[in-house]
Design the sequence.
C-alpha cells in the first residue's frame, strides 16, 4: 500500500472515541456530585441545578450525534466514504450545530442563577440580570439563524439553495461565546475579595472560578481549529476535531460550573490540613462585617458557606445574625436560635462632679 493510500485510509476513530467519552463521563460525574452535595445538605434543587442538568442533556445529545456521525464517516477521509453516508453526515451536522448553539448559553445561565442566589449586592445583581438578558437574547438569535441558515432548510445538507456563509456564522458565534465566557467567569472575583471570609477561603473560591478559564481555552482552541477547516471539501475528516472540541468545551464548562456547589464533597476529598489551607474546613464568615456592600448567604443554598447568615447595616449600626435558615420574607422555616440585638452607643463629655465647700 502506497503512502497516499495509507493517508487516505487514515481513521481518527479511536482518538475521538477516547477523548469524547472521557469528557462526557467527567461532566456526568460532576452533575451527579452536585446533586449529591445538595442531598447531603438536605436542600431542594434550585433553578441553577435544573439549568446545569439541561446543559448535561445537551452535552449527551452532542455525544449521541457524534456517535451517529461516526457511523457515517466522521474521522475518515471523504474519498473512502460513500456519498450516501456523506449526505447523512451533513444532515446530522445540521442538528449538531443547533444543539451546540444552545449548550454553552445554558451553562452560563446556570452560573448566573448561582450568582443570583449567593450575592445580594444590588449593583452586582444588576450586572447579573444584564448578562442573563444578553446571553438569553444571543442564544435565541443564534438558534434562529442556525435553524434557518439555508433556504430551504434542506439546503444545508443537499447543497441546493441559498445559505448564509457558514464559516463567518460559526466564527462570529465562537467569538461572542468566548467573550461572554470570560465575563461570566471573572465577574464574581472582585466581589469575592470584599467578603468577610478567611483569606485561604477567598483564594480557594477564586481558584474555583478561575478554573472556568479552561472552558474559555477549550472554546478558543475550537475556534482556531474551525477557522482552518470550515468550508473544506473533506468534511468527514477535517470536521472531526470540531466535533471533539465542541464536546470538550461543553463538558469542561459543566464541570467548572459544578465545582462551586460541591463544598461538602470537596471537603471530604481535601480533608485535614489541606482542607484548612484551601478553606474547605471552615466556611463560616466573619460575623463582624465592616463593608457597606452586604453579602447574605441564600437560605436554601449553602454549599459555599456555612448556615450562618450575616447582614451588615452599617448605616444604622444594627447587627442581625441568625443561626438558622430564613425565608425571603424573613420568617424562619425551621426551629432554631435567633439572636437579634440593636445597640446604640452615644458618647458625651463627662463633667467632674461639683463638691460643696466644707
Sequence:
Amino acid at each position: 500500500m502506497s503512502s497516499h493510500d495509507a493517508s487516505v485510509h487514515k481513521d481518527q476513530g479511536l482518538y475521538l472515541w477516547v477523548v469524547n467519552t472521557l469528557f462526557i463521563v467527567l461532566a456526568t460525574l460532576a452533575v451527579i456530585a452536585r446533586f449529591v452535595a445538595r442531598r447531603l445538605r438536605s436542600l431542594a434543587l434550585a433553578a441553577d441545578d435544573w439549568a446545569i442538568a439541561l446543559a448535561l442533556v445537551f452535552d449527551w445529545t452532542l455525544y449521541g450525534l457524534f456517535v451517529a456521525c461516526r457511523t457515517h464517516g466522521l474521522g475518515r477521509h471523504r474519498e473512502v466514504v460513500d456519498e450516501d453516508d456523506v449526505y447523512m453526515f451533513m444532515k446530522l451536522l445540521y442538528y449538531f450545530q443547533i444543539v451546540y448553539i444552545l449548550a454553552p448559553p445554558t451553562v452560563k445561565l446556570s452560573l448566573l442563577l448561582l450568582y443570583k442566589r449567593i450575592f445580594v449586592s444590588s449593583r452586582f445583581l444588576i450586572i447579573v440580570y444584564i448578562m442573563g438578558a444578553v446571553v438569553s437574547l444571543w442564544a435565541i438569535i443564534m438558534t434562529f439563524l442556525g435553524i434557518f441558515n439555508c433556504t430551504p432548510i434542506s439546503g444545508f445538507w443537499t447543497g441546493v439553495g441559498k445559505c448564509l456563509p457558514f464559516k463567518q456564522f460559526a466564527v462570529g458565534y465562537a467569538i461572542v461565546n468566548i467573550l461572554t465566557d470570560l465575563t461570566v467567569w471573572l465577574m464574581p472575583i472582585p466581589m469575592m475579595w470584599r467578603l468577610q471570609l478567611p483569606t485561604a477561603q477567598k483564594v480557594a473560591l477564586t481558584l474555583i472560578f478561575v478554573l472556568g478559564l479552561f472552558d474559555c481555552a477549550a472554546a478558543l482552541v475550537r475556534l482556531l481549529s474551525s477557522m482552518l477547516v470550515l468550508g473544506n471539501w473533506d468534511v468527514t475528516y477535517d470536521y472531526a476535531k470540531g466535533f471533539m472540541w465542541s464536546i470538550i468545551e461543553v463538558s469542561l464548562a459543566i464541570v467548572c460550573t459544578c465545582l462551586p456547589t460541591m463544598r461538602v464533597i470537596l471537603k471530604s476529598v481535601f480533608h485535614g490540613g489541606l482542607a484548612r489551607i484551601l478553606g474547605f474546613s471552615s466556611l463560616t464568615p466573619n460575623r463582624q462585617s465592616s463593608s457597606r456592600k452586604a453579602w447574605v448567604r441564600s437560605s436554601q443554598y449553602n454549599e459555599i458557606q456555612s448556615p450562618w447568615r450575616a447582614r451588615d447595616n452599617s448605616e444604622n449600626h444594627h447587627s442581625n445574625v441568625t443561626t438558622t435558615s430564613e425565608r425571603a420574607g424573613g420568617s424562619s422555616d425551621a426551629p432554631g436560635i435567633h439572636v437579634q440585638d440593636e445597640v446604640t452607643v452615644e458618647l458625651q463629655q463627662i463633667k467632674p462632679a461639683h463638691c460643696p465647700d466644707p
Summary: The chain has a mean pLDDT of 78. The CA atoms of residues 73 and 81 lie 6 Å apart. Strands lie at 150-151, 162-163, 309-313, 318-322, 338-342. The first strand starts at residue 150 and ends at 151.
